[in-house]
Amino acid sequence: MFTKNLNQKKYQSVLYTVLILCFVLSGNRLAAEETNKANPSVEPKKDSVVTPEKTNPSVAPKNETTSVSEPPNTNPLVGFERREDNQTPMEIFNKVYEHRLMIRSGFGFGKLSPAILNETGPAWFQNSLFRQITEPGAPLAIPYKPAKDLGVNSQFFDIRYGYKNKYEIQYAEDTTLGVYSRNLPASNNFISPRTDAYWASSFEGNRLLRFEGVSQNLRFSYTHPVTKILMVGPSINFHRYTERNNISYGSYSTSRPEATVPNKTTWSIGGDANAEYSMKGILPGIYSKLKLRDWWEIRARLELLDRKGNFSVLGSQIIQEVFNDNSSSLTAVTPAYGGRVRDKGTILNLETSFQYCRFSLDIGMIRQDIKRTYETYLGDTVGSVPRSDYSARSVYIGFSEMSTSIKHTVTEFYIMPGVSFYYDEDKIY
């Protein structure tokens, strides 16, 4: 009796368990069918990108036996930190933009060794030697104090377009201004030894009152990935340069009693002459980028400088003559020169760039090492004062200017904040 009741209880327990399982499975099936009815599948647009979050892996397309892998996530709407790394060096180097327009502006400071002063010492000395042929006994002009390197302030501006950080077009303008004046001289000093007609003297021959050099550059660059962080390529620069110098000339001589006009003092008390240069050239170069971090890049550019053009010097020089009877007079003479000029050398630009979103801060250095030569140099100082009584810049033909090359160097350090605008497939940001 006890055994019969036990078997009956076991049979009832198994039956209840089976009924419960059938009920649960039926409920799940009905819920799944209701879900499919409430959310019918919609075929995505041809150009839309389906993200992994919206993909239902449990529903497979009909009549397909093989699975199709998702393409890499290149949606420009996705933030940079969520984009996947590609495998080629170029794609790893450039993960941020397809098109970029950058505008920068800044200022700097530096040192200048101007050719207009560096040429004065040897040119005046050699020209005073040539004068002995036509004007025997005219005072010599021997330089004894060359011009020092001078301070400059600089202004910078550029705008550039980049395509995938590989192709780049840049327009850049650099204006260099001297920071000296009559109270802060930039000059050449001379001595004149005693002769049969003149006493020995010392004077300031040339003073630079203002310097302004403007470089305009239109550059086309291409850089190719060498490694995952280094890119190197050629560049070409359509370059234009203008230089404006404001100069004051000086001279001093005193005749001896044995001279034709005894005890006469001739003093060039000042003047104002403008020396202007206009040159252009096509500069080849090499351009490199080093991507150390996503936000830190180092750039370097070396260009071979070769520009040529015209120059002119025109102004006035005031000369005072004091005679033996203490009478005096002021007379103006006119220095006028012109010809062809050429600059050759190198331009080196080193720059470190820090970027945050669309903003950047660039700190850099530009070094110009130039040798200036004159293909032609013609002119004279015209006036009524006897030529043997004062030292002129040049006489008729500047043989000394054309015979040698003159150093011209500029070193500038700058800081340039900038802002960029990006364009990808679907938007500008």
Question: Can you give me a brief rundown of this structure?
Answer:
It comes from Leptospira levettii. The protein has 429 residues and is α+β, with helices and mostly antiparallel strands. Helices cover 15% and strands 53% of the residues.
Key phrases:
5 helices, single chain, elongated, disordered N terminus, Lipocalin, 15% helix, ten-stranded antiparallel β-barrel, alpha+beta, 429 residues
How would you explain this protein's 3D organization?
The chain has 429 residues and is of the alpha+beta class. It has a single domain (90-423), classed as Lipocalin (Beta Barrel), CATH 2.40.128. The chain has 5 helices and 15 strands. It has helices spanning 2-38, 89-93, 115-118, 120-134, 399-403, and strands at 99-113, 142-145, 150-163, 167-178, 187-192, 201-222, 224-225, 230-249, 251-254, 265-293, 296-322, 328-356, 359-382, 396-397, 406-423. It has a 10-stranded antiparallel barrel. The longest helix is centred in the N-terminal third of the chain and has 37 residues, at 2-38. The protein is elongated. The model is unreliable at 1-7 and 24-87 (pLDDT under 50). It comes from Leptospira levettii.
H-E string:
HHEHHEEEEEEEEEEEEEHE
Distance between the termini: 87 Å
What coarse outline follows from CA principal-axis ratios? elongated
- The number of domains is 1
| CATH C-level | Mainly Beta
The helix content is 10-25%
What percent of residues are in strands? over 45%
Cα gyration radius (Å): 40 Å
Structural class: alpha+beta
Low-confidence residue ranges = 1-7, 24-87
Instruction: Give the oligomeric state of the chains in this entry, treating copies of one chain as homo and distinct chains as hetero.
Output: single chain
- Our count of helices gives 5
Largest sheet: 10 strands, antiparallel, barrel
Q: Please identify, by name, the CATH architecture.
A: Beta Barrel
